[in-house]
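Record type: ASSEMBLY
Status: queued
Input:
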Amino acid sequence: MRDEHKLKARIRAGIDGAATGLAVLSTVLVVAPLVAIFIYLVYKGASSLNLDFFTKIPKPVGELGGGMANAIVGSAILLAVGSMIGVPIGIAGGIFLAEFGRGTKLANAVRFTADVLNGVPSIVMGIAIYSLVVVPTHFSGFSGGVALGVMMIPTVCRTTEEMLLMVPHAVREAALALGVPNWRSVLSITVKTASPGIITGCMLAFARVAGETAPLIFTAFGNSNWSTNLNEPMAALPLQIYVYALSPYDDWHRLAWAGALVLIVLILLAVSLVRYVTSRGVLKGAS
Amino acid sequence: MGVGIEVTNLNAWYGTNHTLQDINLNIPANHATALIGPSGCGKSTFVRCLNRMHETNPIARVTGTVRIGDLDIYNDIKPVEIRRRVGMVFQRPNPFPTMSIYDNVAAGLKLNGYSNRHVLDEIVEKSLKNSALWDEVKDDLKKKSGASLSGGQQQRLCIARALAVDPEVLLMDEPASALDPVSTAKIEDLIFQLKSQYTIVIVTHNMQQAARVAEKTGFFLNGRMVEFDSTHKIFTNPSDKRTEDYITGRFG
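Status: finished
Output:
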């Protein structure tokens, strides 16, 4: 009898160990690609990083050196414009889906549209913005920002909806029972309670479009000179990386690697900065 | 000061489910009134009709009249206004998780556009003292989240939050059913003190609790009010056979 217990205990311990091992293995498999990519980028790109990279614009073909300052600034401007379009519309849409339109036909249509939009290949999005914005006007930083903004909307919208739905019903009731009007309760209580998740959704959308090349080819177009005018073609890091990587010159290949490294580091920095800023002022014990 | 509540021919539905049928009752001002009855008998629905929270559910419907003081709450006044006069405490403590203790108490005033800091400070202190929580939280009012308190403290925080908007009536829907006996005793002490200033209606599953805190008790069964009388009469000499069966534990 006792031996049997010991055996069962040993089997249990074995299964427990195996399950823990599988969980650890999965974690490693999830993190490994990111780490591998990062290490490879550092290996290939770090040596080409110098002050010129961050301060100079690209040199004409045949001359060595030059940098991507215009592309870094261009990307920042494009992403700012994109976020200004994508974040408010996406959050407002998510609030509508979760709070005001629940169960209505319009809400179902909006949700379906957002899901389809999320699956549209980015090159298609670029062509769409090309025919809607660029054809009536011309290639411009603004049209690139619009393309990125439109791509952010579905992600922001759907995560906002999911996060709002996770706010307990009791919290909404508490606000209503205090005589707070519904719209005020939604904005000041429900959205505020869900804000960490909503911010994560925005960051996800931001990081995703920050590396997009295809929608910018037909819109921002790229520019090898300084361009901070939204009305003119604008350089962007992913575009510059794309052009340099496809070029036949070794020097440009090296710059492309460096550009890729800078892009990924800047995205990480931007996301961490937003996280840090929004986590200040969170109270002790707040869930 | 509290005001009396006069309920005439109140009926309520959730979809096609007729949850309250022809309720008539007068709840006296500045007393505690307990509502008892088995689960699903309609007592929670009843208190939710007294501050028009019932109708926040899209499939819910109400007919009949409820007068609180001299106001017909279904005709004379908007739902948000009546909810400022009739405070509510729920079964599970539901502080706003992202707000500090201070902001939780001030929430009702702040969200209705009140912003005089000096007055807010005073009201928050007074409300927390009234809910017997002040001494436990006064040192980290603005540092700690409402969600960081223990369950019993959270419930007293919710009572303070309800008191801060200076209601005339306080509805309590099983306020102690999720709490341990010590916290429950504190809530009951509180009800005792508060009823001099507010009209209190308390829904409870716990018959001893009704007997301890309330002057009047109503017994609900299957959406009807079977009997409403002084608590002493209900628990010692009920007029209705069903009330007697329930309080002696023969069903429910």
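Annotation: The radius of gyration of chain A is 24 Å.
Annotation: The CA atoms of residues 179 and 185 of chain A lie 9 Å apart.
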